Amino acid sequence: MMPPVAILAGGFATRLRPITETIPKAMIDIAGRPFISYQMELLKRKGIERVVLCTGYLGKQIQDFLKDGSPFGITVTYSFDGDKLLGTGGALRKALPLLGDTFWVMYGDSYLDVDLKPILDYYTSHDEKGLMTVLRNDNHWDRSNVVYNHGRIIRYDKQNITPDMHYIDYGLALLKKEAFDDFLEKEVFDLAELYGNLVVKGEMLGYEVTKRFYEIGSHKGLEETRKHLAMLNEDSN
Predict the structure, then answer these.
(1) 15-61: per-residue pLDDT in tens?
(2) What is the DSSP string of the chain?
(3) What is the predicted pLDDT for the residue at 236?
(4) Does the predicted model carry a pTM greater than 0.90?
(5) Crossing angle between the packed helical segments 191-200 and 87-99, to the nearest 10 degrees
């Protein structure tokens, strides 16, 4: 059975203004329906049965659309940041009681069409607190931020980019709840801080994927994703 997926969908999405002045990023229209519906369908095809939405900015709109997930054949529950945004790490820490011992993590603006089972099998064959999927990127899709070598994340840093960083964080991870042990007293923090802590302690596995990611976090990414999903829709008809 697949672990649940935590989807981080709470940010202000300022890069997409004015589109996101009245709707959250996950609700952006793609060919007549919200982007989050494509994510749900993809996760269902990949064997996911349960999703926890970590929401903040205008998150009620996502809940009103997805409801309990039954239209997509997935059980959906919600963890709301509350009066202030908690950051990606803080939002995930707050959702831990809903997630269990092991869970996937992805972002509400990503379309990641990869096979989950081999990743999970690799993770469960080891005994680390986290696994980060990476893509050989060489600064092509975005700035590379990972040094990866033979199943290990050697270095991860989104701010201090070095020439030996040929890989990028793909936006899909597996975590055990124990990965948050050093952050249980911290309310607001970024997930990158937690990842960096795991890497420094040698507790973060790496798994290389080869299929490019699509994202709607920028206007350029949004247009690329719209074209990709339109092509998929044509192929399925």
Answers:
(1) 888 888 889 999 999 988 999 999 999 999 999 999 999 998 888 99
(2) -PPPEEEEE-S--GGGTTGGGSS-GGG-EETTEEHHHHHHHHHHHTT--EEEEEE-TTHHHHHHHHTTSGGGTSEEEEEE--SS--HHHHHHHHHHHHH-SEEEEEETTEE----HHHHHHHHHTS--SEEEEEEE-TTSSS---EEEETTEEEEE-SSS--TT--EEEEEEEEEEGGGGGGGTT--S--HHHHHHHHHHTT-EEEEEE-SPPEE-SSHHHHHHHHHHHHHHHHHH-
(3) 65
(4) yes
(5) 80
Sign of dihedral through CA atoms 113, 119, 121, 123? negative
pLDDT digits (tens, 9 = 90+) for 204-225: 999 999 999 999 999 999 999 9
Q: Which fold has domain 5-236?
A: Spore Coat Polysaccharide Biosynthesis Protein SpsA; Chain A (3.90.550)
